[in-house]
């Protein structure tokens, strides 16, 4: 299991290939990549704040839960912090399993929990100034299915 | 003595990312009451507890959590990672 | 939408980066990669047979259905045929959407349908000779949820 | 005249990947009966229709499907891609 919280950019494809090469006997690899989306077309940048120390711990706990609940060969979580521009990759998760169902479910579980339980906060900077992204009720609701 | 940390707009309203406080409070809720009584910026930051989350020693918890033996309390809005 | 049926190897990571770079306004990208698994440790190779002409058509129909049912920015399907050795990547799907739920669901839908409705057949070669992989009831059942 | 294609173990049992046949059959089922009556290798390949799938002009269909206007019929086991 690899958990990385970093300011530096990463390439999801490169990480995916490395992850896939490292797992034996896993027929199924699922990845999720989150990209900075600029719906208004006016966002200058996104700044991600996090809680050093707690972030790594929270992500590790979430990944541990996934490894307990599903039959996984491995899991990967990468999440950036600091300033990002639209189109940049914010984070990714990857899961590997013998069967696709486990890999898909575990990746969705990781995403749902990461969204609402890992201490990251997004701020958007645009022509009208700065604003903190509000949490969505949907995201909290998504936890109920697990 | 306890370290109190603030993140995102809570940090902006309080004006500092962290501070070290002397407190008699034995629960998070009591600490919040102490802070609100102190200065307006705390009153503003803690005006709606439903909009806030709290972690004691880096574990998410509720406002009724005990502060016994706690070294670090953090206040922040609901998380928006991913 | 890109559908490729090919004998040549591909690198899932490279394809994922290219796919992600090509979609604007998509905050969420999900990928699935299928890898040749050798459970017995004795498989020499896997040979994938397909039905040229129908394969591309079937994959396109499945992808069209996904684009109709979910709000997707784009979708990618790559499937190989011919001889493969354990550890090689057999196929991949990728989906891009504004929201993670659509991207995840559409990718699972593509996989479920591709498994049971696209004309591919796997044969395994080992020390005891050749054997055709049997379809699993699970895979047929998986279609019922959509 | 119709092109008949076989895949995977159906192809192995029949012995050829495709053949062009003269047939009076108006449904897939009737074509299967014609073939089974012909030679043992067809009888063997088509012994359990529940284990087979069929496509007419590259569309999956049932054994009761009409062959009217059809150019191509394919027989194969359940697919195992992905």
Question: Low-confidence spans of chain B: pLDDT under 50, at least 5 residues?
Answer: none
- CATH fold category name of chain A: Aldehyde Oxidoreductase, domain 3
Sheet with the most strands, sense and barrel status of chain B = 5 strands, mixed
According to DSSP, the number of beta strands of chain A is: 8
Output the number of helix runs of chain B.
3
Alpha carbon gap, first and last residue of chain B: 34 Å
Family (chains A, C): Belongs to the MoaE family.
Protein name (chains A, C): Molybdopterin synthase catalytic subunit
EC number (chains A, C): 2.8.1.12
Organism (chains A, C): Aliiruegeria haliotis
What would you note in describing this structure?
- Chains A, C: This is Molybdopterin synthase catalytic subunit.
- Chains A, C: It is an enzyme of class 2 (transferase).
- Chains A, C: InterPro entries: MoaE_sf, Mopterin_biosynth_MoaE.
- Chains A, C: Converts molybdopterin precursor Z into molybdopterin. This requires the incorporation of two sulfur atoms into precursor Z to generate a dithiolene group. The sulfur is provided by MoaD.
- The complex is a heterotetramer, with 2 copies of chain A (146 residues) and 2 copies of chain B (82 residues).
- Chain A is of the alpha+beta class and 146 residues long.
- Chain A is 35% helix and 35% strand.
- Chain A has a single domain, classed as Aldehyde Oxidoreductase, domain 3.
- In chain A, the strands form 2 sheets. Chain A has a 4-stranded mixed β-sheet, sandwiched between helices. In chain A, strands 5-3-7-8 form a 4-stranded antiparallel β-sheet, with no helix packed on it.
- Chain A is globular.
- With 82 residues, chain B is of the alpha+beta class.
- Chain B has helices at 8-14, 28-38, 40-45, and strands at residues 2-6, 18-21, 53-56, 59-61, 72-76.
- The longest helix of chain B has 11 residues, at 28-38.
- Chain B is globular and about 35 Å long.
- The mean pLDDT of chain B is 97.
- The C-D interface holds C 34, 48-51, 53-54, 57-58, 79, 90-91, 111, 114-123, 132-135, 140 and D 5, 7-9, 11, 55, 58-60, 74, 76-82.
- Strand 2 (28-35) of chain A pairs antiparallel with strand 2 of chain C, so a sheet runs across the interface.
